[in-house]
Every structure is written in structure tokens, then in C-alpha cells.
TrEMBL record:
Domain S1-like residue range list: 6-80
This protein's name: Translation initiation factor 1A
Function: Seems to be required for maximal rate of protein biosynthesis. Enhances ribosome dissociation into subunits and stabilizes the binding of the initiator Met-tRNA(I) to 40 S ribosomal subunits.
The entry's keywords: Initiation factor, Protein biosynthesis
InterPro entries: NA-bd_OB-fold, RNA-binding_domain_S1_IF1, TIF_eIF-1A, TIF_eIF-1A_CS
UniProt lineage: Archaea, Methanobacteriati, Methanobacteriota, Stenosarchaea group, Halobacteria
Record GO terms (molecular function): RNA binding; translation initiation factor activity
Assigned protein family: Belongs to the eIF-1A family.
Superkingdom as given in the UniProt entry: Archaea
Length: 94
């Protein structure tokens, strides 16, 4: 998965996904995120992630904004700290 330079092949956003930073935990499997496109959205943690992936404030996540309600989104992926640092180094997020 990683080469000699320590770089991992990270999951990158699909066409309908954007990077986001978790800014606030709202409860009821919802979080407030600030997306890379500049919008604040309420993101939902899907059932398949709820017990397996722990999401905290300041985590870097991938979200998929809803087609019919742009202020809401679903979280599709969470990066751990090393992966988030790598995304920053490579200039994908700031």
C-alpha cells in the first residue's frame, strides 16, 4: 500500500464527493462539516459507519452532497491523522 517514500495511495474523491472538515458534533449520527467548496453542510454518518468508524471534530472526511438538498450530505470516508497530513502535504486540502 505504501512505497519507499512512505506515501500511501489514498482514496480520492469521486466526481460527486468533496473533502470536508468536521467542525461540530450534532448528535443523532449527524455532524456539521465545512466542505472544500466553501459550504457548511449537515452531514449524516451512515449506518454502516456508525459503530465501525469513530468520527471526531477536526477529522478530514469525504462527503457526498445530496442532489436535492445542497446543505446536507452523507459521509462516505474518514481519513486518519497520517492520511490527512499526507493530503495537506500534497496540496489536496489546506
Amino acid at each position: 500500500m505504501s512505497d519507499s517514500s512512505g506515501r500511501n495511495n489514498l482514496r480520492m474523491p469521486d466526481d460527486d464527493e468533496v473533502f470536508a472538515t468536521v467542525t461540530n458534533m450534532l448528535g443523532a449520527n449527524r455532524v456539521k462539516v465545512r466542505c472544500a467548496d466553501g459550504k457548511e453542510r449537515t452531514a449524516r454518518i451512515p449506518g454502516k459507519m456508525q459503530k465501525r468508524v469513530w468520527i471526531r471534530e477536526d477529522d478530514i472526511v469525504l462527503v457526498e452532497p445530496w442532489d436535492w438538498q445542497d446543505e446536507k450530505a452523507d459521509i462516505t470516508w474518514r481519513y486518519d491523522k497520517q492520511q490527512a497530513d499526507q493530503l495537506r502535504r500534497e496540496g489536496h486540502i489546506n
